[in-house]
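Exercise 7b. Backbone tokens:
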């Protein structure tokens, strides 16, 4: 490196250090265009609502599901899972895992827990048969009264499979109620 070029580099370095002494290092670095990508970006400060909305059609991967009101509007919730033998079989396995201890194998509210606990409703009575599929789905998910919530254990379509199995216990055919 020539003496002249070395002096020019030293002068530029001294000028840069002198300019940096008059301002913060962040502002000095911001003068270089390719260093500003992390400095100049949209950011959400703590406790500030986001200004950017998620793209249309995006699906959250975390969080919680919307709540369903057990008393209104569940008659319009349509069971999206066809009541096939496979669906009923899957629902039976899930029912035997989570529901049998209280409701019993036939859904009559005579499970082994009822010897020392409050008996649950008989799922084969007319009052239970008159409940909509949406009501049974919401009851599985959210619980009510002495029935605990199973939404964190029985997820998504598996709840509909349990609804299909309960309908089969109630003597329903392949049609939906």
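Sequence design result:
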């Amino acid at each position: 490196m020539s003496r002249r070029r070395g002096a020019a580099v030293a002068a530029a370095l001294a000028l840069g250090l002198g300019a940096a002494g008059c301002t913060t290092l962040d502002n000095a670095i911001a003068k270089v265009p390719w260093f500003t990508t992390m400095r100049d970006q949209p950011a959400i400060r703590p406790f500030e609502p986001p200004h950017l909305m998620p793209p249309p059609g995006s699906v959250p991967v975390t969080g919680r599901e919307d709540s369903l009101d057990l008393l209104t509007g569940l008659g319009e919730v349509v069971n999206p899972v066809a009541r096939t033998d496979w669906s009923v079989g899957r629902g039976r396995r899930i029912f035997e895992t989570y529901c049998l201890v209280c409701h019993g194998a036939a859904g009559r509210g005579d499970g082994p827990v009822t010897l020392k606990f409050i008996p649950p409703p008989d799922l084969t009575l007319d009052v239970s048969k008159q409940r909509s599929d949406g009501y049974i789905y919401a009851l599985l998910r959210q619980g009510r009264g002495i029935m605990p919530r199973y939404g964190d254990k029985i997820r998504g379509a598996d709840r509909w499979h349990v609804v299909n199995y309960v309908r089969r216990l109630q003597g329903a055919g392949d049609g939906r109620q």
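Instructor comment: Residues 136 and 163 are 6 Å apart (CA to CA). Residues 3-22 form the longest helix (20 residues).
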